[in-house]
Specification:
The chain has about 200 residues and is an alpha/beta fold. It has 6 helices and 9 strands. The relative contact order is 0.17.
Length: about 200
């Protein structure tokens, strides 16, 4: 019989739930991991990590908690990937790490104009970027009121992963205002940064 492991991740802050689940998955060859989390960010982060690793992740709500069941040994995408951010075959993918909602130093108004110009330019790339990773005030670019929402929505529709740091969204209290892409965690972001992609930092 395949081993079953239960992990109580309630009360843990990002990225601890993902790290706990990864440790448990690494410790078995075949089996089922069930993680209990108590917030939406952890639910999204853990289930996304499992799916990116090539496994199914079924989420059930139990009262104020979420139960995430992950099966190792029944990959859903042909096996475990080598990194969280997958490479695209036959090309060097590009990842943009964006740490501010304006581009450059100086006038904030000019910085917003330059950021929008950059996003318009990225939409013209063939192929489009593999991912846009938003940290710090950069997460505001993917939220309500951002002047670059249209460009980000276009990039997302072309397959670009638009990922905003959950810790940053929580810090600025704007998670409910996220309109493009999804919430990510530092482990997933680091997977893109240390993967096969060429990383360009925008600050």
């Amino acid at each position: 019989m395949s081993p079953k492991t239960n992990i109580d991740c309630r009360g843990l802050s990002c990225p601890q739930p993902v790290l706990q689940v990864k440790k448990a998955l690494d410790s078995i060859t075949v089996g089922t991991i069930t993680a209990i989390v108590d917030n939406d960010t952890a639910r999204e982060n853990v289930s996304t990590f499992a799916r990116n690793a090539g496994y199914s992740a079924e989420v059930e709500k139990e009262g104020s908690n979420f139960k995430i069941t992950i099966v190792k040994g029944s990959p859903v995408s042909g096996g475990e990937t080598s990194s969280i951010g997958p490479a695209r075959e036959g090309e060097i993918p590009i990842v943009y790490l964006i740490t501010s909602n304006i581009l450059g130093q100086g006038s904030p108004d000019l910085g917003q104009v330059l950021m929008k110009s950059l996003m318009v330019t990225l939409n013209e790339m063939t192929p489009p970027p593999l991912a846009l990773l938003f940290l710090n005030t950069g997460v505001m670019s993917a939220c309500e009121g951002s002047p670059v929402l249209e460009q980000l929505q276009s990039l997302s529709s072309k397959g670009t992963a638009v990922i905003s740091c959950g810790t940053c969204l929580d810090y600025y209290k704007i998670k409910e205002k996220l309109l493009v892409g999804r919430v990510g965690n530092m482990m997933e972001i680091n997977g893109y940064l240390t993967g096969d992609a060429r990383v360009i930092t925008v600050a």
